[in-house]
Amino acid sequence: MIPATGRQIAAELGDSDFRDTALLKPGVSLRYGAHYLKSQLDAFGGSVAAALAAYNGGPGNAGRWQEAAGDDDDLLLETIDYPETRTYVQVVLENYALYRYAYGITNRPALP
Fold this sequence. Notes:
The chain is mainly α.
């Protein structure tokens, strides 16, 4: 997470003692990252793929990719023109499917 995003989240969470270096602390990083991911899920109508793209590649870019792809998450993945972000989204979605299977949510690795 870049410091500017960290400062924005600190303001949203009322963390008046926030310093950029706090992002290096695992507890802060996890709390702020979870907050930011939730905000992206809300902003992108619950689309996990679009929220992950926003988390890694920025919400403006994710909006552009989602607009081009419509409601098709597979097409969204193919629309992402940043190799790092495309790989990030693909790997996180693959692991999400595996965790859903491992925790008995599905009878095979699958996404909702």
